[in-house]
Design brief:
The chain has 485 residues and is an alpha+beta fold. The chain has 4 domains: 151 residues, no CATH class; 92 residues, no CATH class; 88 residues, Tetratricopeptide repeat domain (Serine Threonine Protein Phosphatase 5, Tetratricopeptide repeat), CATH 1.25.40.10; 98 residues, OB fold (Dihydrolipoamide Acetyltransferase, E2P), CATH 2.40.50.140. The chain is built from 19 helices and 12 strands. It has a 6-stranded mixed β-sheet with strand order 4-5-3-2-1-6, with helices on both faces. A 6-stranded mixed β-sheet has the order 9-8-7-11-12-10. Strand 11 and strand 12 form a beta hairpin. Bound molecules: zinc ion. The site of zinc ion has 4 residues, from helix 3 and helix 4.
């Protein structure tokens, strides 16, 4: 639905592009856009299951893009975690559901991630996976999980709640999933917990450690509830019903070129730049007037920090008629950060929002840009007003010379770097994170902290940084440490 490319003729030789040797199909309903090289039957099965679980949630959102991969090789290349038969990926512009296995529980599980990603802030892995498993069985007990817990025992609570547990799980990810399901299943099916579950989730989204969030919401220790879940062993259940008449899928052949572009876009969103570069470069050689190639190569230039080249390519994509919201959005960002005309920034953002009305990132920036234009700030106002410098003794990182207390509103992911947007003292500041993996993060306790890209659930943050304006990044300094409260 989002992609409107008019490709009349096929200039690419078959199998010329990586990952597009097979026949691709586009199977769609008003709620889903599914691309598959696994044949019509498998694609139809997946979309029928997606419509079923959508009816259970009775949830409406812009259609996620669903891939159903035929081959193990494709799935692995595009998968985040190899042991999983499906994945969910949310980006500011688009959501993806990636599937190889289209069995009911897998499809329901990934769709649940989609719903929660759109309706909640970041939840810890154990909770997110537990919820996805709970809905995957429509509230019924999952015998396989119960058997695994009965034979293998439960993971120690600390290990289960840790960030790594989902991927390592003590070498046993299945046990992590089983335990997360059993616990969340109890929370949803027991009257004691169900009513106060929203309060618990809210505390988790705020970044409270699980034990604290649990005590706050339910007034008892988490470990006691874990014992309870172990004793209950999925005995309760609730019934969820698939509702109504669901739309019939439309099936159409997908040419190799749009299939290749869709795969390249996915690679880009998965930060698999090498693969994306290969496809876009091939495409730009074969079809120099296709805006998709310039848009993709421009997005890659942006991520490696080559801003002049990114601006040139994105501008070319726009001149060639690109209808990708991301292209207009990224172009707007580049114009703004190189001190370009605010009116030009607003125009590009308006086009991004018109093309993807759900693009929260673009809407946020558009609102900001319009506000800034009304207020007509003097140039460099933010940079002149460096906040007072006070470094607490506990923060002995010698590099930072400045400090900012505020609310983290937004994270721009720019390839290997990131930019934090923070509201403080009635203003907004941007700060560069040069090497995200090397920034010490304090006060997080047992909380899982991840920089999701895009708008953040507002959260108090303390930032220590070196005051050093970077006009290209639009930042006032480089972050040396972060703390959350
Ligand atoms: Zn999952």
């Amino acid at each position: 639905m989002r992609r409107v490319l008019s490709i009349a003729t096929l200039l690419l030789a078959p199998a010329a592009l990586p990952g597009v040797a097979a026949q691709w199909l586009r199977i769609s309903t008003p709620n889903f856009e599914l691309l598959t090289d696994a044949g019509e039957n498998k694609g139809r099965t997946a979309i029928v299951k997606l419509e079923e679980i959508r009816s259970v949630f009775d949830f409406s959102a812009p259609a996620p893009r669903v891939f159903v991969f035929a081959s193990e090789a494709d799935r692995k290349r595009f998968d985040l975690h190899e042991f999983r038969p499906g994945s969910f990926l949310g980006t500011p512009e688009r959501s993806y559901i990636l599937l190889r296995d289209v069995s009911e529980r897998i499809v329901y599980h990934e769709y649940t991630h989609f719903v929660f990603a759109r309706t909640h802030g970041a939840l810890p892995a154990w909770f997110a996976e537990g919820v996805a498993e709970f809905y995957s069985a429509l509230g019924q007990a999952i015998p396989g999980h119960l058997a695994r817990l009965a034979s293998g025992g439960w993971l120690p609570v600390e290990e289960w709640l840790s960030k790594e547990a989902a991927w390592i799980g003590g070498g046993d990810p299945a046990r992590f999933y089983a335990q997360s399901w059993a616990f969340v299943h109890m929370l949803y099916t027991s009257r004691t917990y169900r009513d106060r579950l929203p309060g618990f989730m809210k505390r988790l989204e705020e970044g409270a450690p699980a034990a604290q969030a649990f005590a706050d919401a339910f007034g008892k220790p988490l470990v006691d509830a874990v014992d309870e879940a172990r004793a209950l062993a999925g005995r309760n259940s609730i019934a969820m019903a698939i509702k109504g008449k669901r739309p019939d899928p439309q099936v159409a052949a997908l040419d190799k070129t749009p299939a290749a572009i869709a795969l390249a876009d996915l690679s880009l969103d998965l930060n698999q730049y090498g693969h994306a570069f290969e496809i876009y470069t091939k495409l730009s050689g074969d079809r120099p007037d296709d805006p998709a190639a310039a848009a993709g190569l421009g997005a890659l230039a942006l991520r490696r920090g080559d801003y002049p080249e990114a601006r040139r390519l994105l501008r070319r994509a726009i001149e060639l008629g690109s209808r990708e919201a991301r292209t207009h959005y990224e172009y707007a960002m580049l114009v703004r950060e190189s001190g370009g005309e605010p009116a030009a920034v607003i125009e590009s953002l308006q086009r991004a929002v018109a093309l993807a009305p759900d693009f929260a990132d673009a809407k946020y920036l558009l609102g900001r840009a319009e506000l800034d234009l009304k207020q007509k700030p003097e140039g460099g106002e933010v940079r002149k007003s460096k906040p007072a410098v006070t470094i607490p003794k506990s923060w002995n990182n010698p590099e930072g010379d400045s400090r900012l207390d505020g609310v983290l509103e937004h994270v721009d992911c720019l390839g290997t770097q990131a930019r934090l947007r923070v509201a403080a003292n009635g203003r907004r500041y941007s700060l560069a994170v040069r090497e995200p993996g090397k920034i010490p993060i304090r006060n997080t306790g047992a909380v899982t902290f991840e920089f999701g890209c895009g708008p953040q659930k507002p959260r108090r943050i303390e930032i220590e940084y070196v005051a050093k304006a970077d006009p290209a990044m639009g930042t006032i300094g480089d972050v040396t440490a972060l703390g959350f409260r």
